[in-house]
Amino acid sequence: MSEYSKNLSFDESLLESDFHKKNLEIGSLNLTEINYRTNLKTELEYKEVEGEYKFLSVVRENPHLNVQDDINFYLYWFLNSEDNTFQETFSDNIENEVSVISSEIERVLSSLPKKSNLVQPLINKSQRYINRYSDFAPKGVYKNLASSSESSLQSSVNSKIRPLEVLLKKLQNASK
Questions:
Q1: Where does residue 56 rank: exposed (0-12), middle (13-18), buried (19+ CB within 10 A)?
Q2: pLDDT along the chain (176 residues), means of 10
Q3: 98 has which bridge partners?
Q4: Plot region of 140 (φ>0 → left; ψ -120 to 50 → alpha; else → beta)
Q5: Exposed e or buried b for every residue in 137-171, given b needs 16+ CB within 10 A?
Q6: In principle, which of 28, 86, 95, 111 could form an S-S bond with 4, CB 3.0–4.6 Å?
Q7: Considering the entire predicted model, what is its pTM?
Q8: Domain residue spans in the chain?
Q9: Which residues are 55's β-sheet partners?
Q10: DSSP 3-state assignment of 84?
Q11: Neighbours of 93 (CB within 10 A)
């Protein structure tokens, strides 16, 4: 079990199955990466739920992180790696979340200084999101990943995050 994230728990008898080993590898790689990038210690459990194995949060997560949902999505992506809709969905999800966070920043910027109590939590949330997804591509999801595909996905994600980085700088400067 030492080769898996210390923040991932599971029944060790699952290691007898190549299917579960691969799922645990993907989950562990991505959990370790996400925890590193967000400076958090999200804990997940891999277990059967309604006849299907999934990663579940051990404690209630920050709803803006969705670690368990993302890692479960990466598993489906791996199992269906020939289906390009997963990459498109991943990219669209990032674009949508950037739009939501950007709207929050715009609302706070337009109402400063009276909403100054919202600035620091929003800065933290934005920075954590940027840290999580800058130069990111899910680990282990491509069965035959060409490095150019991973680089292309990272470039696409970075281009979607740039507007948020610009707004974050505005918010940081306005709050000084």
A1: middle
A2: 84 95 95 92 93 89 73 90 81 93 93 85 93 91 66 90 96 88
A3: none
A4: left
A5: bbbbbbeeeeeeebeebeebbbebbeebeebbeeb
A6: 28
A7: 0.86
A8: 8-79, 85-174
A9: 46
A10: coil
A11: 15
